[in-house]
Amino acid sequence: MQSMNTLRIPRCLACRNPLAAPLEIPRTFTVQTRGKKKLRRPISIIVRLLQDKAHYGPKGAIIPIPAGLMRNKWFPNQIAQYMTSTELKNIDIRAAELERDYSFVASKQDPVVVDTRPDVVDIKLHIPSAPETSKVLESLLPDTFTFILMPISSSKTKDGVPNHSPIFGSVTTAEMLQAIKAICAEDAKASSLVLYADDIKFSAVPGSVEVEAERIKRLGDFYVDIEPKGAGQKVRRMVKVVPPEIGV
User: Fold this and answer.
1) Is 234:226 a contact under the CB 8 Å cutoff?
2) pLDDT score, position 225
3) Are 80 and 46 a contacting pair, CB within 8 Å?
4) How far is it, in rounded angstroms, from Cα 216 to Cα 202?
5) How far is it, in rounded angstroms, from Cα 195 to Cα 181?
6) Cα 83 from Cα 100, distance rounded (Å)
7) How high is the pLDDT of residue 172?
């Protein structure tokens, strides 16, 4: 009786060879690698040139070009036309080996897209000189400019007229310039006048307190002198700074 721990080896060679054969290791194996994806080439179509095109070919040449170039540029500008299915059947594309002629030089320059919009009208604007500006201002500006501002104190003189008390804020040459421009804007001749805040200066009237040339900080009457650079003459007007009860 054979022991249970004994390995039984078959006597038949056909049955014994698979057990004796060495373990074979496959010689080939697959390795998965990741790299850059291949870029898709643009789809080309066959077209016929309607005019000479440098580096592509002469008029009538049949060449392949990217479909996007034909759709977006060449067809709208009538540089080439699409080939019909019948025309494509009559062309042996493989035999013809259609390709663009990189060495071709057009006899004429490529067409330039012409702007078909209406011509821009050249308007010549007359800018008055400094003497002309002074002359227009002299005839156009009112005798008095009135500014209404709140005084810091409500003290008055004996006759009830507010004295030269300080005010909240000030009247500047820039504000004076805006008031003058608002008047000039309503006149055709004066709308093109060139005037700057530096051309405007404040001064005190006789018997009044001194005032800064660039701003007024008190109630009262003052002069404003307007002299465009190069004019040689001043345009003088009166400026009144009054409290709200008098301005109304």
Assistant:
1) yes
2) 94
3) no
4) 8
5) 9
6) 16
7) 92
74 within 8 A of 61, measured Cβ to Cβ: no
Query: How far is Cα 148 from Cα 145, in angstroms, rounded to an integer?
Result: 10
Q: Side chain identity at 112, as an amino acid letter?
A: V
For residue range 11-40, list pLDDT tens digits in order.
555 555 555 555 454 454 455 556 555 556
- Residue 103: partners with Cβ closer than 8 Å, 6 or more residues away: 55
Using DSSP bridges, classify how beta strands 62-66 and 80-82 pair: parallel, antiparallel or unpaired: unpaired
Q: What's the CA gap between 79 and 85, in Å, rounded?
A: 20
State how far the Cα of 221 lies from the Cα of 218, in Å rounded to an integer.
9
Closest CA to 161 of 211, 202, 219: 219
List the beta strands (DSSP E) in 56-163.
62-66, 80-82, 144-148
Cα separations (Å) of 56 from 52, 96, 104, 139, 165? 8, 16, 6, 71, 86
